[in-house]
Write a structure and sequence with these properties.
- This protein is α+β, with helices and mostly antiparallel strands.
- It has ten helices and 15 strands.
- α6 (139-149) crosses α8.
- 45% of the residues are buried.
Amino acid sequence: MKVLLVVNPLASSVTGRTRVVIQKALSADHRLEVAVTQRRNHATRIAQNAAKDGIDIVVVLGGDGTLNEVANGLVDSGTAIAALPGGSTNVFAHTLGIPDDPIEATGSLLDSLEVGSIHRIGLGSVNERYFLFHAGIGFDAAVVEQVEKRAGILKRFAGHPLFVVAAVGTWLRHYDKKRPVFRVSTQKVDEETIGDMETTGVEGLFAVCLNTDPYTYLGTRKISLAPDTDLDTPLAIATFKNLTLKKLLPVVLGSLGIGNTTTSSSRVVDLRTDLTKAKVDAYELTPLQVDGDFLGNFKDFYFNYEPSCLDVVLPTKPSEHQNS
């Protein structure tokens, strides 16, 4: 099997030793090539070329941002993507059930390749940029922007604490919580008309469009906003209408599995599921992040669901490998 290993050398969990061990393991039974990313969006070009060259699997050793770039280069191709956790959070790898340690994850990957454990999933897109697990408008994108301003050594070694500090700082000083930022329109999967979308009338200060759940992880604990959404279902959008601490805290605790308040039961959050399309009209330039990467500020956000467009290598169950 022809395998390309894409390495982000700046990812927080990527070391020289890790790279050597993983390369030796993958090259033992497969024809391995290695590519190292050098700048933002470089991984997308690498992935596009890999698909044209007939590579069977592109293995990504990096964080969620590198995975996102590779996924955007492999959409609707015959080349599959495989994740090895190399970042600080590794949301997509955790969601798939991949081991946290990249070397252990490589062993799991080799087992999956041996039995052909590949599944075709759907993706969401916003303004023609695909996302694996979510895209955020407003507050969380502002948090990601603050984190990226502190990128480099601090981001590499601080990990989750840096995101927590950035979230608190953004909430206190860098984000207007007093008035709505946008209005949401949606179209459900069972609606026959493709024309006008339903204007929900929901105005928000922060929204997350999810291709799967959980939204992210805080340490090992998942933050769940749309529990019924997964990689085989259409999109969900959770719109937060209030960001005051008194009203937001019960929802945050509920999403962590603490308490009884959930996004579907809270009046603070409007949760829409099974969506094929959505549009968010912002009243001013508003930040956007996709799979944990800040993309800039926009006024119009167009979401679409693309079913069955990306092959993903999934971890095998022990019984699958034993029976192979």
